[in-house]
Design brief:
Multidrug-efflux Transporter Regulator, Chain: A, Domain 2, about 90 residues, mainly alpha, about 55% helix, two-stranded antiparallel sheet
Amino acid sequence: MSRQRTMEKIMQSEYVSIGELVRITNCRYSTLKFYTEEGLLEFEQEEEKLTRRFPRERAVSRINEIMKLKKEGRNISEIKNILSSL
């Protein structure tokens, strides 16, 4: 049996995993991991070895913002500057 939550459950959830964010946003896992490492995506983590939990609504909204800026031709450092000033 699959351990994956249904999309309905994910969309009702306050927090999601990075894998669930991949499903919601259609972004690649490696892309979201990069955004996280660059400090563009906030997450909570109980202990270092435990799963990172992303606040679903804020994370999806942030990813959409990043995608919009990328479509405008912005690079990561420009995106960081723009998003940090919001």
